[in-house]
Amino acid sequence: MSLSFLFFFVPAMIIGLVAQHRVKSTFARNLQVPVANGLTGAEVARRILDANGLHEVPVEETQGSLSDHYDPRTRSVHLSPEVYSERSIASTAVGAHEVGHAIQHAQAYAFFRFRSAMFPAVQFASNIWLLFLFGGFILNIVGFIFVAILLYSIAVLFQIVTLPVEFDASRRAKRQLSDLGFVATTEATGVQSVLKAAAWT
After folding, report:
1. Digit-coded pLDDT (tens) for 161-184
2. Considering 43, 98, 166, 187, which one is annotated as catalytic?
């Protein structure tokens, strides 16, 4: 039983750690590159929202590094301090990416609606699977380990199935940044690299 778990768990964890490292390194590198438009990530997000008629969607600062997200329950964009206040390639790209989710919501994008509906259950699975895993090994209860594998599988499958949502948000962000003239030609490569990394979050 433990071997079958490790066979599934270890590769998934390695892939997750590699993706996480890529996101962090790409973000950190481009956070040091100033953007020519002189706008903060929050200002970029606000202008894209307004350009798409989403005046009622607030842009708020949230605590934590790489904690940027769009909350469909409150219809609000939340940006980490680095993204909210900095004037960099990274803050521009991440701010635009999160607004991409707001646009998906406004346009009733099917994959986004599916992810939003599934998110509470998946979040529960992500938070509790480790308890079952440790409980199973400590108490030697095989059933707990089965439950842990099931919950972890649900969380991983959810991430895979909803990847189109993230890639679409980055695609929308790239188009908005281009159409609104927020990115210079010399900055396009850096912005694209951040948007690609953001799609894996």
Report:
1. 889 999 999 999 999 999 999 999
2. 98
